[in-house]
């Protein structure tokens, strides 16, 4: 996937479950807890996306009385509902007043719309017409609450890119010359739907520049690169964002940045994981993409789904930061990252799963965990409550 610099739409989902258990892994470089039990499917009241929901991000207000779930709503024209080359990827908002026990659909925040763009390099690569017809996709959102920025307390980051129309059933290529990490800001999550779209982060591949690039620090990879999979956290009066950077294998794939002034300016911090870390955990892992940031008990954690060379996203590893301001994870005496726990896919098969998120006030649901199961088609994309905290109570 990274070699082609094409990021396919994720396919995802549901199931019936077994009993819960936490087991110790004995065939790994070091023992760590593996969470392996049945998870509870989240049914969002009023949600109608016919291909399901994915890419969850959960955030609460300051006192934890109201929670918000923002996610990708996947839709297909009814005549094409059996195909997995998703045409519409919107950003949807749901709300809870009971710490994640029930969720109610609120509204659509961004709309997937049709358009025509020009991109000579992708026209040639995919044998497309000069005027490429397709859809604007909005996916992998992350919501953060910044209580110290009046009128702009709620900030939404997401990946907006152009996806070319293709014959039925054929994967839709991403036109990376039209790809950015976007920002919306408002005084409430509901008002994000009306907020201005800002091109915040982008690479030199994009036809129009974003406000921030960072390639002068991490290095330009090629003419084909992009940022995707943003995650965010407000901690100690700063906003932290971590991006997945898709380029050559010689460059870091995770880009951690921070802002001291509510997102007006950004500082590059570093990359908390590298290729050595992936191989340490499993020789068949390619890297970690689509990570999340979370806080519990005053500590900051990285929720990281590994990419298997054959099976794509496979569950979620949880690591603790020793110092997030230096992108430094806690490591053992040999320099390897210490695993707090591993959240395993609960359904059969090796389909995409694990781009998780967590908030300390999501008391009922705990870590939320997306996973795919084609048996639940056409709504293959689903989100689950694991009911797992990051730190287990003793």
Note the topology.
Blueprint (H helix, E strand, L loop, with lengths): L21 E3 L8 E3 L4 E2 L2 E2 L7 E8 L6 E9 L12 E9 L6 E8 L3 E5 L1 H7 L4 E15 L8 E11 L9 E13 L11 E4 L13 H4 L7 E10 L2 E9 L7 E6 L7 E4 L4 H7 L3 E4 L3 E5 L2 E6 L1 E3 L3 E2 L2 E8 L4 E2 L9 E5 L24 E5 L8 E5 L9
Parallel strand pairs: 2-25, 4-8
Antiparallel strand pairs: 1-2, 3-27, 5-6, 6-7, 7-8, 9-10, 10-11, 11-12, 12-13, 14-15, 15-16, 16-17, 18-21, 19-20, 20-23, 21-22, 23-24, 23-25, 26-27
Could you characterize the architecture of this molecule?
By secondary structure, this protein is mainly β. The chain has a domain at 50-273 and 349-385: Tachylectin-2, Chain A. The chain has helices at 120-126, 215-218, 275-281, and strands at 22-24, 33-35, 40-41, 44-45, 53-60, 67-75, 88-96, 103-110, 114-118, 131-145, 154-164, 174-186, 198-201, 226-235, 238-246, 254-259, 267-270, 285-288, 292-296, 299-304, 306-308, 312-313, 316-323, 328-329, 339-343, 368-372, 381-385. The strands form six sheets. Strands 1, 2, 19, 20, 23, 24 and 25 form a seven-stranded mixed sheet that branches. Strands 4-8-7-6-5 form a five-stranded mixed sheet, with no helix packed on it. Strands 9-10-11-12-13 form a five-stranded antiparallel sheet, covered by helices on one side. A hairpin with an 8-residue loop joins strand 1 and strand 2 (33-35). The longest helix has 7 residues, at 120-126. The radius of gyration is 20 Å and the shape is globular. Mean pLDDT is 90; it is low at 1-27.
């Amino acid at each position: 996937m990274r070699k082609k610099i094409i990021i396919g739409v994720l396919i995802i989902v549901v199931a019936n479950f077994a009993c819960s258990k936490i087991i110790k892994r004995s065939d790994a470089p070091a023992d760590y807890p593996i969470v392996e039990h049945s998870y509870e499917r989240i049914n969002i009241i009023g949600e109608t996306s016919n291909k399901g929901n994915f890419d969850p991000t959960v955030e609460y207000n300051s006192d934890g009385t109201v929670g918000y779930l923002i996610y990708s709503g996947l839709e297909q024209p009814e005549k094409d509902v059996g195909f997995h080359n998703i045409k519409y990827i919107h950003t949807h908002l749901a709300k809870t007043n009971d710490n994640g026990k029930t969720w109610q659909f609120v509204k659509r925040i961004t709309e997937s719309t049709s358009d025509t763009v020009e991109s000579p390099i992708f026209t040639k690569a995919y044998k497309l017409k000069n005027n490429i017809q397709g859809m604007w996709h909005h996916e992998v959102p992350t919501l953060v609450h910044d209580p110290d920025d009046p009128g702009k307390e709620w900030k939404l980051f997401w990946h907006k890119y152009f996806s070319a129309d293709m014959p039925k059933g054929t994967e839709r290529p991403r036109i990376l010359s039209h790809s950015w990490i976007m920002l919306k800001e408002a005084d409430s999550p509901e008002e994000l739907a009306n907020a201005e779209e800002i091109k915040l982060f982008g690479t030199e591949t994009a036809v129009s520049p974003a406000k921030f690039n960072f390639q002068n620090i991490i290095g330009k990879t090629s003419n084909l690169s992009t940022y995707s999979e943003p995650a965010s956290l407000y901690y100690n009066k700063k906003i932290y964002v971590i991006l997945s950077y898709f380029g050559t294998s010689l460059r870091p794939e995770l880009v951690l940045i921070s802002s001291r002034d509510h997102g007006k300016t950004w500082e590059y911090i570093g990359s908390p994981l590298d290729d050595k870390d992936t191989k340490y955990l499993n020789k068949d892992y390619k890297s970690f993409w689509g990570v999340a940031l979370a806080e519990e008990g005053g500590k900051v954690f990285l929720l990281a789904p590994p990419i298997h060379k054959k099976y794509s996203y496979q569950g979620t590893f949880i690591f603790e930061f020793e110092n997030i301001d230096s992108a430094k994870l806690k490591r053992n005496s040999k320099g390897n990252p210490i695993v707090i726990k591993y959240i395993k896919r609960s359904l059969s098969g090796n389909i995409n799963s694990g781009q998780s998120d967590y908030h300390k006030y999501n008391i009922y649901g705990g870590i939320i965990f997306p996973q795919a199961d084609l048996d639940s088609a056409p709504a293959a994309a689903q989100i689950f409550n694991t009911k797992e905290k990051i730190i287990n109570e003793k």
